[in-house]
Design brief:
The complex is a heterotrimer of chains A (about 350), B (about 525) and C (about 80). Chain A has about 350 residues and is an alpha/beta fold. Chain A has one domain (about 35-200, about 215-345): 3-Layer(aba) Sandwich (Rossmann fold), CATH 3.40.50. Chain A has helices at about 1-25, 40-45, 60, 65-75, 90-100, 115, 120-130, 135-145, 150-155, 160, 170-175, 215-230, 245-260, 290-310, 320-345, and strands spanning about 55, 80, 105-110, 230-235, 265. In chain A, strands 2-1-3-4-5 form a 5-stranded parallel β-sheet, with helices on both faces. In chain A, helix 5 runs antiparallel to helix 8 (about 135-145). The longest helix of chain A is centred in the C-terminal third of the chain and has 28 residues, at about 320-345. With about 525 residues, chain B is mostly helical. Chain B has 2 domains: about 5-130 and about 140-205, no CATH class; about 225-510, no CATH class. In chain B, about 75% of the residues lie in helices and about 0% in strands. Chain B contains 22 helices and no strands. Chain B has helices spanning about 5-20, 25-40, 45-75, 85-130, 145-160, 170-180, 180-185, 195-200, 210-240, 250-280, 295-300, 305-320, 325-335, 340-360, 365-385, 385-395, 405-425, 430-440, 460-480, 485-490, 495-510, 520-525. The longest helix of chain B has about 45 residues, at about 85-130. Chain C has one domain (about 1-75): Non-ribosomal Peptide Synthetase Peptidyl Carrier Protein, Chain A (Orthogonal Bundle). Chain C contains 4 helices and no strands. Chain C has helices spanning about 1-10, 30-45, 55-60, 60-75. In chain C, helix 1 (about 1-10) runs antiparallel to helix 2 (about 30-45). The longest helix of chain C has 15 residues, at about 30-45. The chains are: A alpha/beta (about 350), B mainly alpha (about 525), C mainly alpha (about 80). Chains in contact: A-B, B-C. The interface of A and B includes residues 19, 29, 85, 126 and 153 of A.
C-alpha cells in the first residue's frame, strides 16, 4: 500500500514536471525564421571550446568580423559572443560565463555600448539572457539588466514569460522543440546583400559627453577579469557609421586604454586602410557591414591581432582543420543560399 | 501587492508554511504580523488609518462592555431595592451612555472614511455650486487599502456589541487581527465577529483535505480572474475609453463584457481570499451565490456581494425601518386613513436610504449615486408589481416551472443588471445615457461578423479562450446551483482523474492567463541596434 | 397567536404558517416582509421589535415570533 502511494507520487511528479518542461520548450521563441540573433548566445555551448580569441559586444562585433577569415588567413581560432544590444554589464557576465569553459589568449571588446548606454529593453534582455546557461553569472546578469516590468521568476521559468505564445504557435515551434539549426558562423551573422551608405547623418551635439561612471565600471571589471586570467584585452570600435561615434567618446576610451596599457583600435578611423567601401560593403546603409565588408575588415584586423598579440597560426592542427573544414562548407552554403535568394528577388 | 502578483503568491506561501510549523497557539499572532506586513506593502503611510480605527474602536468596545458589566453588577446588588420603573429608567440611562460611545465611534470611523473617500467629491461639488473651478479646491488623499471593508466590519462589531450580542474581544492584539485580517482587506468579504473570531483565534492543525480544498478554490479563483476577467478587460477599456467611436452595438457588447468582467474579477478574488483562508483553517462567509442565475433584481441582490448587502440590511435597513419614530409615524398615517401610505412608508424610506448609501459606498461619484437610486427604485417597483405577478402566475400556473420561461427571466435579469452596471463602466452619467440611446438608435448586427470585434484589442484566440472558459464556469455554477460541489465530485474520483482535473486547470491558468508582459513578436524584431 | 397568524396569512396566503419553521432559512420571508410584519405587530400588539431582534431564530416560525412578542410584552 505504501509502495503504491510512493509510486503514484513519483508518477504524478514526473508527469507534472515533464509536461511543464515540454510546454516551456514549446512556447519559447525559436528564433529560426527571423531574428536569428536570439540564438547566438546559446550556440556557443555546442562548440569545441579551445579559442584563441573571444569577441564580446553587440551587433558591432557579430556583424562585422568573420572568424572564418581569421582562421583561413591567420590561423586564429576565434568565436564571437555577441547579441543584439548586448549591454556592457551583460558582456562582462558573458565573459565570466565563457571563462567557465575556456581561457582564450585575447578578448576583443567592442566599446560602442560603453558611452552609448542604451536603456535596457526587455526583448533584447531576453534574447541575450535566455540563451545563457545557468550559473551565478547568469543570475547576476539578469539582476543587473532587468527592467522594472520584468521579474526574475520569468527567467527561471520562461514559460511564465512566453505563455501567451500558446495561441500563436507555428510549425517551427514543433520542429525546433529540442534542437536548433546552426544560424551563426562562430557567432558571426552573415549578410550578403548590400545597401550603399548615403547621407549618413552627423551626430547631434550632446549636452554631456562624459561616459557614465557605472558603464566605465563594467569596462573596468572586464579589464580586471582579463588581467586576473592573463588574457590580453583589446578594445575596438567597429567601422559602423551610425550610431555616431563622437570624438569626445573616443578620447575618453583612448585615455582609458593608455592608462591601462591596452590596445585600442578605432576601426572607424581606419576604414580606408582596411579597404572598406561603404558603397558596396554594408547591407543597411552603413550601420553594419555585409559579408564583403566583414571579410575585408577581418583580414585587416587579423593582421593587427597577430602582430600585437603575438598569436601564432594554428593552421595544421588536425582537429581544428577538420572542424573548420566543416564550418567552411556551412559558410559557403549560407552564402550561396543568400545569393540565390537575392538573385531570385531581382 | 496585487492578488495576482508573484509577490502575493510568495507571501501567501511563506505564511502558509510558517503557519503550520509554529505551535498552534501562536498562529493568530503570525496572522496579525502577516496582516500588518501585508498592509505595509501597500504603503507604510497608510498604517495610521487602520491603527486609528483599531485603537479607537477598541476603546469604545471596552467602554460599552464596561458600562454593561457595571449595570449588571448594580442590578444584582440592588435587586430587591429597585422598583420595576427604577430598573427600567436605570437601564435606559446606561443604554444612553453606551449609545453616546457608539455614536462617537460611528462619527470617528465613518468620518475618516468620509474625508478620505468622499472629501474630494464633496468639495468639488460644493465648489462648483459656487462657480469655482480648477484644481485649487481639490485635495487628493490616496485610499488606504481595504478602508471600506475594515471600517464596515469594525462598525458592525461595535453595533453588535451595543446590542449585546456578544462579549467584546478583550485582548487588543486579537481585536487588531479581527480588523486587519489581510485576505479580507483586499476586497472583503465583510465578516461578523461572532463567526470569524472562533476561527481566527483558535489554532488549526494541518488538515490535508481542507488545505487541498482551499488551494483548489484559490486556483479556480485565479482562473476566473486571470483567464477571463483580465483578458476581457482589454476589449472593455477600448470601448469605454472611446464612447464616441464605440457606440451602438459596441455599447451592448461592452455592457455584457463588463458584467462578465465584474463578476469574474470580484468573485474570482473572493474565491482566492476564501480559499486561502480555508487552507489556513479559517472559514469566511460566502459573498456570491451564482448571481447571474437570478430571476429578478431582488433575487440578484440576495446573491451578489452578500456580505455587504447583509451589512446594510442589518445595520441600516432594519434599524431605520423598525425605529420607534418611523413606526409611530406609520401608525399616525394609518390612523389618518392612509392605509397604503402607512404600509409603504417605512419600507420605502429605508430602501432608498440603503440604496443611496450602497451607491455611495461603491465610489465617490454621481454615477454611483444614480446607480444606487435606480436599484432602489426598481426594487420598489417590482415590489409594487408583486400582486400583478401573483395574478399572472395564478392565471398561468405552469409557467413558474417552465424552463424556457425561467431562462427568459434569468436573461432578462442579467441584461437589466448589466445595464445598471453601465454607470460603473462609463465615466459619466451623461455618457451612460447617450450610449444607452445609441445602443438602440444605431444598432448594427453586422458588428458580430464583420471583424469589428477583432479591432477592440481582442484576437480570435482571445474570444475562443473566453468562450470555452465561460462554458466551464457556467457548468461549475450549474452544478452548484443544483446543490452539488464540483470540488467534492472531483475529490471522490480516482487519483489520475484528480490530477488531470486540477493540474489541467493549473495549466490553463498558466498558459491562458492574461498576465505578464505579453508576447508581442514585433518587440522582438531586430531593429538595427 | 391567532391575530399573528392572520397577519402572516395576509402577507403570504400560500404558506402554512402553523407548521412551517424555516421561514427565514428558506427565504419565504424577505426583508420587506419582515419590516411590514414588524409594523403590523407594532400596530396590533404595541410592542417594538428592534433591529437586534431580527435574527433567524426569532422569525423562522410563527411560534418563535409569538414567543418573541410575549417576551417583549413582558419587558414593557
Amino acid at each position: 500500500m505504501k509502495a503504491k502511494k510512493i509510486l503514484s507520487v513519483v508518477v504524478v511528479t514526473v508527469f507534472v514536471i515533464g509536461t511543464l518542461y515540454l510546454l516551456q520548450r514549446l512556447v519559447m521563441p525559436k528564433y529560426m525564421d527571423d531574428v536569428v540573433e536570439g540564438n547566438f548566445i546559446a550556440e556557443y555551448y555546442n562548440e569545441e571550446k579551445d579559442h584563441d580569441v573571444i569577441f564580446l559586444g553587440d551587433c558591432e562585433v557579430y556583424e562585422n568580423f568573420s572568424p572564418l577569415v581569421l582562421w583561413e588567413e591567420y590561423g586564429i581560432n576565434s568565436y564571437i559572443r555577441g547579441s543584439a544590444q548586448q549591454l556592457v554589464s551583460q558582456s562582462y557576465y558573458i565573459l565570466e560565463d565563457t571563462l567557465r569553459y575556456e581561457t582564450p589568449d585575447v578578448v576583443v571588446f567592442s566599446v560602442l555600448a560603453v558611452p552609448y548606454n542604451e536603456a535596457p529593453r526587455e526583448s533584447y534582455n531576453r534574447m541575450t539572457l535566455d540563451g545563457m546557461r545557468w550559473s551565478l553569472s547568469k543570475v547576476n546578469a539578469i539582476r543587473d539588466s532587468m527592467t522594472e516590468e520584468e521579474s526574475f521568476l520569468d527567467y527561471v521559468f520562461p514559460l511564465l514569460r512566453y505563455h501567451s505564445r500558446i495561441t500563436e504557435l507555428t510549425a517551427d515551434d514543433f520542429t525546433y522543440l529540442f534542437h536548433r539549426d546552426l544560424v551563426s558562423h562562430n557567432g558571426y551573422y552573415m549578410r550578403v546583400d548590400s545597401l550603399p551608405a548615403e547621407n549618413v547623418p552627423e551626430g547631434r551635439p550632446l549636452g554631456d559627453y562624459t561616459i557614465d561612471a557605472a558603464q566605465m565600471e563594467y569596462l573596468d571589471k572586464i579589464r580586471t577579469l582579463c588581467e586576473e586570467k592573463g588574457i590580453q584585452l583589446v578594445l575596438v570600435k567597429a567601422p559602423s557609421l551610425y550610431p555616431y561615434w563622437y570624438d569626445e567618446w573616443d578620447a575618453q576610451i583612448t585615455e582609458y586604454a593608455e592608462e591601462h596599457d591596452l590596445l585600442y583600435v578605432n576601426l572607424l578611423a581606419q576604414a580606408d586602410e582596411a579597404g572598406l567601401d561603404f558603397q558596396t560593403d554594408t547591407y543597411d546603409g552603413g550601420l553594419h557591414l555585409n559579408l564583403s565588408g566583414a571579410e575585408k575588415l577581418s583580414r585587416y584586423f587579423g593582421a593587427i591581432l597577430q602582430d600585437h598579440c603575438g598569436l601564432e597560426s594554428r593552421r595544421g592542427e588536425e582537429a581544428l582543420e577538420a572542424a573548420w573544414q566543416e564550418k567552411t562548407v556551412w559558410y559557403e552554403e549560407d552564402k550561396a543560399r543568400q545569393e540565390a535568394e537575392i538573385a531570385a528577388g531581382e | 501587492m496585487s492578488i495576482t502578483s508573484y509577490s502575493f503568491l510568495l507571501f501567501a506561501g511563506v505564511l502558509f508554511i510558517l503557519y503550520y510549523l509554529i505551535p498552534r497557539r501562536f498562529q493568530w499572532i503570525l496572522l496579525l504580523i502577516a496582516s500588518y506586513v501585508f498592509y505595509c506593502f501597500s504603503g507604510v503611510r497608510y498604517l495610521g488609518y487602520i491603527l486609528a480605527t483599531t485603537v479607537f474602536s477598541y476603546i469604545v468596545s471596552m467602554k460599552i462592555w464596561d458600562l454593561k458589566r457595571r449595570q449588571d453588577a448594580r442590578l444584582k446588588l440592588k435587586k430587591d431595592e429597585f422598583s420595576r420603573e427604577e430598573k427600567k429608567a436605570y437601564k435606559a440611562s446606561v443604554k444612553k451612555k453606551q449609545k453616546a460611545w457608539l455614536v462617537a465611534a460611528l462619527l470617528f470611523n465613518f468620518g475618516i472614511l468620509g474625508i478620505i473617500k468622499y472629501g474630494n467629491f464633496i468639495v468639488s461639488n460644493v465648489g462648483s455650486l459656487f462657480g469655482a473651478s480648477g484644481d485649487d479646491l481639490f485635495f487628493h488623499l490616496a485610499l488606504p487599502l481595504g478602508i471600506s471593508f475594515y471600517t464596515f466590519q469594525t462598525m458592525g462589531y461595535l453595533i453588535d456589541l451595543y446590542r449585546g450580542e456578544y462579549e467584546p474581544e478583550r485582548n487588543f492584539f486579537k481585536f487588531a487581527l479581527f480588523v486587519s485580517y489581510f485576505p479580507q482587506l483586499i476586497q472583503g468579504p465583510i465578516s461578523r465577529f461572532g463567526s470569524l473570531s472562533k476561527d481566527l483565534y483558535t489554532g488549526h492543525a494541518f488538515d490535508g483535505r481542507q488545505v487541498a480544498s482551499g488551494l483548489q478554490r484559490m486556483l479556480y479563483g485565479y482562473f476566473k480572474k486571470m483567464v477571463i476577467a483580465d483578458r476581457i478587460i482589454t476589449g472593455l477599456t477600448t470601448i469605454s475609453g472611446d464612447p464616441a467611436t464605440y457606440s451602438g452595438t459596441f455599447v451592448l457588447v461592452g455592457m455584457i463584457f463588463y458584467a462578465i468582467d465584474l463578476y469574474m474579477d470580484f468573485s474570482g478574488g473572493i474565491d482566492i481570499v476564501i480559499g486561502l483562508s480555508q487552507a489556513l483553517g479559517i472559514t469566511l462567509p460566502e459573498n456570491f451565490k451564482r448571481p447571474y442565475f437570478s430571476k429578478s433584481l431582488k433575487d440578484y441582490w440576495h446573491r451578489w456581494h452578500i456580505s455587504l448587502c447583509n451589512w446594510f440590511k442589518d445595520y441600516l435597513f432594519y434599524p431605520i425601518s423598525t425605529s420607534p419614530a418611523m413606526l409611530a409615524r406609520a401608525k399616525k398615517m394609518k390612523a389618518a386613513g392612509h392605509e397604503g401610505l402607512s404600509r409603504r412608508f417605512t419600507v420605502y424610506t429605508a430602501t432608498m436610504v440603503v440604496w443611496l448609501s450602497t451607491g455611495i459606498w461603491h465610489g465617490a461619484s454621481w454615477n454611483f449615486v444614480v446607480w444606487g437610486l435606480l436599484n432602489g427604485f426598481f426594487l420598489l417597483l417590482s415590489q409594487e408589481l408583486e400582486p400583478a405577478y401573483r395574478r399572472f402566475y395564478e392565471r398561468f400556473p405552469r409557467l413558474e416551472k417552465n424552463a424556457l420561461w425561467n431562462a427568459f427571466r434569468i436573461v432578462r435579469t442579467f441584461l437589466f443588471v448589466s445595464l445598471l452596471c453601465m454607470f460603473d463602466y462609463y465615466d459619466s452619467v451623461s455618457t451612460v445615457i447617450r450610449s444607452f440611446i445609441g445602443m438602440f438608435s444605431s444598432f448594427r448586427l453586422s458588428v458580430f461578423w464583420d471583424g469589428s470585434l477583432l479591432a477592440i484589442g481582442l484576437t480570435a484566440a482571445d474570444y475562443w479562450i473566453l468562450l470555452v472558459s465561460l462554458i466551464l464556469v457556467f457548468v461549475v455554477s450549474w452544478f452548484q446551483e443544483k446543490g452539488r460541489s464540483v470540488r467534492s465530485l472531483i475529490a471522490a474520483r480516482a487519483l489520475p482523474v484528480r490530477v488531470i482535473a486540477w493540474y489541467g486547470l493549473f495549466l490553463i491558468v498558466i498558459l491562458f492567463g492574461a498576465y505578464g508582459i505579453g508576447y508581442d513578436a514585433t518587440q522582438f524584431i531586430y531593429n538595427q541596434f | 397567536m391567532d391575530t399573528l397568524l392572520e397577519i402572516l396569512n395576509d402577507l403570504h396566503p400560500d404558506v402554512d404558517f402553523e407548521t412551517c419553521d424555516t421561514l427565514i432559512d428558506d427565504e419565504i420571508l424577505d426583508s420587506f416582509d419582515i419590516v411590514s410584519l414588524i409594523a403590523e405587530i407594532n400596530n396590533e400588539f404595541d410592542v417594538n421589535i428592534s433591529a437586534k431582534d431580527i435574527i433567524p431564530e426569532n422569525f423562522n416560525s410563527a411560534q418563535a415570533l409569538w414567543a418573541l412578542i410575549e417576551r417583549l410584552e413582558d419587558e414593557e
